[in-house]
Design goal:
Number of domains: 2
Strand order of the largest sheet: 2-10-9-8-5-3-4
CATH topology of the largest domain: Aspartate Aminotransferase, domain 2
Radius of gyration: 21 Å
Strand content: 15-25%
Oligomer: single chain
Bound molecules: pyridoxal-5'-phosphate
Number of helices: 14
Structural class: alpha/beta
Number of strands: 15
Largest sheet: 7 strands, mixed
CATH superfamily of the largest domain: Type I PLP-dependent aspartate aminotransferase-like (Major domain)
Shape: globular
CATH architecture of the largest domain: 3-Layer(aba) Sandwich
Order of helices and strands: EHHEHEHEHEEEHEHEEHHHHEEHEEEHH
């Protein structure tokens, strides 16, 4: 028998109800039945993003919406500040470069969070910076960046907007888009939104729409204004990802019924239990000072390659977690607890980790991490 467990930072598990709904026969994306579904989805997305503005929908992975955020908000030769503290911060820089946007990189040591004071100083000393690009959760390092503090700095700057990659954070971490004045927030389907990969989202503030008016970068599929026009008519500009959106309607329904506050509490509780278990096993967190509640990154113990931990867990115990990327490759492994994940998924992952560490020659007392996690969960 092969029973598998998925605790990777995307794709993540999908609820049985959403899977069943997505298996329904295809309906046409321009008919009234589908428009009604999109109308429901619009309301659900506004609830999740905590915004009164429309949330745009694209048939792509999250990176497509990241690219769209750059091409719709900025112009050739513009300057953008990029929080560069991991693989996905690097991606913001790469997209800017691809489109001729000049970047001011704020280098952040991997495993640490951005310092809002440095961002403030940089913006104060250079008023030509048009956008600040950051992650809410830098998935590659397990860090949560201080979005509210950064937003407080950017919101008073007439000529600067804040663009947040919340691809792993949306649905896991509280990001009140309107209250905090987050200008563009990008999300993806396959992380805490509990769906298969293939759709991406972007919310756009009134301030950001003014930037869109001036933007002259090339764009065609990822055209925010065009999608706004369509979504206002309960349509997408091009063929809707019908099955995925039917799944989305279901996952948004589940999000509404659990309630945002409970969802964030659940993620916090799972994150706390995971961190406690890791410490209980004598291991160290990769981002001890500002860990995100969406994912826990763990330093591989001395003499053990993090990639081997991932490999044994997957091959022998059928538990899929993630390794490190780029400079963290081999040094860390990452357990995601975002989306359709509950307390017993965590116990499973920690138990498999204990067996794996023993197998790799790092002795841990079986059940010690799981017990620590259970105590937190039961507390
Ligand atoms: C997963 C992830 C991405 C990449 O998303 P794709 O859907 O693979 O394009 C970007 N940023 C963050 C923070 C992520 O977690």
């Amino acid at each position: 028998m092969e029973k598998r467990y998925l605790l990777a930072p995307g794709p993540t598990p999908v609820s049985p109800r959403a899977l069943l709904n997505m298996a329904e026969p295809i309906i046409h994306h321009r008919g009234p039945e589908f428009s009604n579904i999109l109308s429901e989805i619009r309301e659900g997305l506004k609830y999740l993003f905590q915004t009164k503005n429309e949330v745009l929908i694209f048939s792509s992975t999250g990176t497509g919406a990241m690219e769209g955020a750059v091409t719709n908000m900025l112009s050739k030769g513009d300057k953008a500040l990029v929080v560069n503290g991991g693989k996905f911060g690097e991606r913001w820089g790469d997209i800017c470069k691809a489109y001729g946007v000049e970047t001011v990189l704020i280098d952040v040591t991997w495993g640490e969070a951005a310092d809002p004071n440095i961002i403030k100083k940089t913006l104060d000393s250079d008023s030509s910076i048009k956008a600040v690009l950051t992650q809410a959760c830098e998935t590659s390092t397990g860090v949560g960046h201080p979005i509210k503090e950064i937003a407080d700095i950017v919101k008073d700057k007439e000529n600067t907007i804040l663009i947040v990659d919340a691809i792993s954070a949306m649905g896991a971490i509280d990001l009140p888009v309107d209250k905090w004045k987050l200008d563009v927030v990008v999300a993806g389907s396959q992380k805490a939104m509990m769906l298969p990969p293939g759709i991406a989202f972007a919310s756009v503030s009134d301030k950001a729409w003014r930037f869109a008016e001036d933007s002259n970068l090339p764009k065609y599929y990822f055209n925010f204004k065009k999608e706004l026009n369509s979504i206002n008519k309960n349509q997408t500009a091009y063929t809707s990802a019908v099955s995925l959106l039917i799944g989305l309607a279901e996952s948004l329904k589940q999000i509404k019924s659990e309630g945002l506050e409970n969802i964030y509490k659940r993620h916090e509780r799972l994150a706390k239990a995971t961190r406690a278990a890791i410490k209980g096993l004598g291991l160290q967190l990769y981002a001890p000072k500002s860990p995100s509640n969406a994912i826990t990154a763990i330093l591989a113990p001395n003499g053990i390659n993090g990639s081997d931990v991932v490999k044994v867990m997957r091959e022998k115990y059928k538990v899929t977690i993630a390794g490190g990327q780029s400079q963290a490759k081999g040094k860390i492994f990452r357990i995601a607890h975002m989306g359709y994940i509950d307390q017993f998924d965590i116990i499973t992952a920690i138990s498999a980790l204990e067996m794996t560490l023993n197998e790799l020659g790092y002795h841990v007392e079986l059940g010690k991490g799981a017990k620590t996690a259970l105590e937190v969960l039961n507390g």
